[in-house]
Amino acid sequence: MMSLSSSSEIEIIVSKDNTAAAAAEQVVIADVFGACAYGDLLKLTKFVQEDGASLSQPDGNGYYPLQWASLNNFADVAHYIIQHGGDVHAVDNVRQTALHWAAVRGSVAAADVLLHNGARVEAADVNGYRAVHVAAQYGQTSFLNFIVAKYHADFDVPDNDGRTPLHWAAYKGFADTIRLLLFWDAFQGKQDKEGCTPLHWAALRGNLEACVVLIHAGTKQELLVKDSAGFTPAQIAADRGHHHVSLILSNALRGHNSCWKDKGWMNKVGDIGYGPILFCIVFVCTIIFVNSLLFASNLVKVTAVVGLWGWTAVSLSASSLLMFIRCSSKDPGYLKTSGGIRNNADAERPLVTIDLINSANWTGNWSQRCPTCKVLLKSFLYFTYNWVKFLGKLQFAFLWFGANFTLPL
């Protein structure tokens, strides 16, 4: 059975006080490290300019002034340190940089200063943890989004044990961080060195909300994957005593097994998708309408009014088919990228790489569409469905009207 020791996580020595105001009343700042930790820029300036203190040397534990300032998000102090000899690439005993420390508390302002001054966003410590891993471990969703969107950090990179940020967010139970990573299209089926997916780790800890998010965003395959010990996520949850999580995972698997897509010829229909089927229905209904009413030889002569309304309906039907083809085959306006969103030069915008030829656009894979496309496509499908119903009712109405009311020519 797999296990995850706390020693593999990032080790950070933090101050007990959370605010600089409280610390100033209780702590005597005696050196540059204390001034950086509590954001006292005046005392830091005094230590450097009057006492000649160095900002490029670590303390007795191997921690640098820049790491303390970054941990507590003192961007002005971090900037001052860099200007006076601080090294953004300096690492402590476990090769953690100031950016790693900034990720612990989600210090976005300090991280921006570091990265703007040349810090490496992909710097890794002895465990292979990068800033994205640390942010996921501590649930710093805003920080994670910041370094991915602005500085193109790799959000799906594995550490030395093969665990991605999604593994860590699932293990720690940070549902919002999981949602963000899934939005960035992180690979949910990634297995670490122990064969575990993010769903395995969420089930191991009994993180109910994390499991629910992963289930809804995933497929049947994630529920069936076994780790190196031969356990599925549901079995791990049951073995660890998380029976409520095990029940949800088992029900989700049964739901996938009973889905109509998994049964015989209906599976082929699900693979083809609903777009072509809907197109054929509208087209056939239009042909039947024209043939059985407008061009029917055995009915009462069609009047001018009935003919006008009939051909208007046919025109609207043809227009809806043309609009359907255009909406299904044309670029809706989002910029395409060759290497995905992580390599996009303007990744601050919520751009999505859309392959319009891929079958996912026909089979209802909604997770690959942005919210705007989902709303527009659902609205169009709803309109088309109601238009088909309207054509059917209109056909019988015209038959009855033509049989009972005939205008003299």
Write a compact overview of the structure shown.
The protein has 20 helices and no strands. It is mainly α.
Structure, explained:
By secondary structure, the chain is mainly alpha-helical. Among the domains are: 14-154, Alpha Horseshoe (Serine Threonine Protein Phosphatase 5, Tetratricopeptide repeat); 272-404, no CATH class. The protein has 20 helices and no strands. The chain has helices spanning 20-26, 32-37, 41-49, 65-71, 75-83, 98-104, 108-116, 131-137, 141-151, 165-172, 175-183, 198-205, 208-217, 220-224, 233-239, 243-257, 264-272, 275-294, 304-329, 371-404. α10 (165-172) runs antiparallel to α11 and α15 (233-239) runs antiparallel to α16 (243-257). It starts with 19 loop residues before the first helix and ends in a 5-residue tail after the last helix.
What's the structural blueprint in terms of helices and strands?
Layout: H1 20-26, H2 32-37, H3 41-49, H4 65-71, H5 75-83, H6 98-104, H7 108-116, H8 131-137, H9 141-151, H10 165-172, H11 175-183, H12 198-205, H13 208-217, H14 220-224, H15 233-239, H16 243-257, H17 264-272, H18 275-294, H19 304-329, H20 371-404
